[in-house]
Design brief:
The protein has about 150 residues and is an alpha/beta fold. The chain has a single domain, classed as Rossmann fold (3-Layer(aba) Sandwich), CATH 3.40.50. It is built from seven helices and six strands, in the order E-H-E-H-E-H-E-H-H-E-H-E-H. It has helices at about 15-25, 40-50, 65-75, 90-95, 100-110, 120-125, 145-150, and strands at about 5-10, 25-30, 55, 80-85, 115-120, 135-140. Helix 1 links the parallel strand 1 (about 5-10) and strand 2. It is globular, with a radius of gyration of 15 Å.
């Protein structure tokens, strides 16, 4: 039985991505299992925020869409954007290799936020397929101590 976070995969990640994550021991819910294909991003983001699931998407433009960004922030969504131009199975394997860093990030950050999950460099993966990528907070931007004083 899995007691960790539940990851929700947006429709843009297809079928293979969530299958690989499940095979890697993660609890995963697919968009297609809960929503119609034409469900607006605002609607599924609201529901995922209410369920406290971790939303995964490949849509890097979401931060720049005012209505979707507002939904993320207003409904307490933890949104991870999977970055990279690679086949989805490769992105899923990179996500699993980065799982420890992702879980650590989730423990240290309270929603709402948008973070980017990067896969490791191809050369690093060629040397060691288990090389993790990285995860970085994207929104809201970090406020530095100097910026807070001004």
């Amino acid at each position: 039985m899995n007691f960790g976070p539940v990851f929700f995969t947006d429709r843009d990640l297809g079928k293979k991505f969530p299958e690989i994550l499940r095979a890697g021991g993660l609890a995963v819910e697919r968009h297609a299992d809960h929503f119609r294909p034409d469900t607006s991003d605002e609607e599924w983001l609201r529901e995922i925020g209410a369920k406290r699931w971790i939303a995964l998407t490949h849509d890097g433009r979401i931060r720049y869409k005012p209505n979707e960004l507002a939904t993320v922030m207003q409904h307490g969504v933890a949104l991870l954007v999977i970055v990279g131009h690679a086949p989805y199975p490769d992105l899923a394997r990179a996500f699993l290799a980065t799982k420890g860093r992702i879980l650590n990030f989730l423990e240290r950050h309270q929603p709402p936020y948008i973070a980017k999950v990067y896969r490791p460099a191809p050369g690093d993966v060629a040397k060691d397929p288990s090389t993790p990528g990285r995860i970085e907070l994207w929104h809201p931007p970090k406020v530095t101590a100097m910026a807070r004083r001004t």
